[in-house]
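Reopening: C-alpha cells for the zinc ion complex, inputs below.
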Amino acid sequence: MRLLSLAVLFVLAATGAAWLFARSTNPAIAVAPPAETSSPIETLTAMTKAAAKTEGPRYSKSGYDITPLSEKQIDQLAQKLAPAERDVILAKGTERAFCGTLVDNHKEGVYVCHLCGLPLFSSQNKFDSGTGWPSFFQPVDKDHIAYHSDTSYGMERIEILCARCTAHLGHVFEDGPKPTGLRYCVNSVSLEFVEKKDGKLDPPAASRPIATETAYFAGGCFWGTEDLFQQVPGVIDAVSGYMGGNVKNPNYKQVCYTDTEHAETVRIVFDPARVTYKELLAKFFKFHDPTQLDRQGPDHGRQYRSAIFASDEKQLAEAKAFIAEQSQKPKYQNRKIVTTIQLAQKPGETGGFWEAEEYHQDYHAKHGGHCAIPSSGDE
Ligand SMILES: [Zn+2]
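Re-run output (same inputs, fresh job):
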C-alpha cells in the first residue's frame, strides 16, 4: 500500500483535518501536494492538481473507478439533463437559495452525482447551514471531489466538482462545523438522492464500487514484487505478506529463521475490467525468474520460492494453462519452470495470506527507487 507522503501528513496534521488521514490505496492519488500549503482547502486544491497529472485508471479508497470521463462520455451523459440542470451542472450556475429539493431532506442515504452517479455525500455528514443550499462538512470519499480556484464575480472561491465527470457541484468554504471546519455548499440539481431502505442501500450500477478480484503471487523478495505490481494499470492495491505456511500470523523473523514454510507473497486487488488475471500472470513471469528453485537472485530460502496461490478454481485453471503454454517456449526447454500452483487458503486460515509488518509495506516507495524489471521474460 502506498501512504500519503510525509509532506501531506505534516500539512494535514497542521490543519487538523483528521478525516483526511485515511490511506490512499490508489497510486494515482498518492501524490504529494506542495508542502507550503497551509489550509485544508489549499491542500485539497493542490491534491486535485497533482491527481490531474496522473495517467491511466484511477480508483478511490472506497473502491470506485474515478478515472476522468472523456468529453464524449460526458456529452452522452449530459443528454438526459433538463435545461435548468445544464445551467448548473455544465455552465456552473447556481440555483436560487431555498429553492432546491434537497435542502430540507433529512432522510438517511447517499447523495450521488446527478450526471455520472458517483457517490459524493452521505446523509451522516449533512447539516443545516441556514444558507438555503444542501450543506455537508465532508464528502463520502475525499477522492470523489475535485477542487478548483474560482475567481468569477470578483470573488475568490473554491469550486467543487465531481472528480469523475467534472459536473459542477457548488463551492466549499472554511466556515463549517467540526470535525473538518468545512462547508460543502452544493446545488440540489447537481445531486441525486438514494435513500436507505430497511437499513440497506440499493444504488444503481453507476453508483456502486467496482467488482474487484484478488490474486496472490510469490516471486522472491516481496518489496520488489509489490512495487512492480503497484505500477500495473488496473491494479488497485498491492500488499506484502506471507502465505502457504504452517503457523498463523507469522512475523518476519519466524519466516526467515524458522521452518514456517511461508513464501513472501503479494496480495493484488485488481479491476478485471482493466487488467485480466492472465495479463497479471504474464507480468508475474516478467517480474521474476520462474526457473529458480527456492531462491530469487541473491535471496536463498523457501520464503523466496516462486508460487501462485489461486483465489478460486477459475484462476487455478488459468494459471495451470498459462504455465503449460509457457513451458512450450524455447526459453524454458533447458531451464524448467518451477513455479508451484495451489488454491489459496482463506484469509485467517493457517496457510492463508497474512499481511507483513508495516515496515515492509511500500518499501520502495518509502526508501526511494523502483525495482528494475528483469530483462529476461516476455509478455
Ligand atoms: Zn459525476
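The domain at 213-367 is CATH 3.30.1060.10 (Peptide Methionine Sulfoxide Reductase; Chain A). Confidence is low (pLDDT under 50) at residues 1-33, 375-379. Marking as resolved unless the reporter disagrees.
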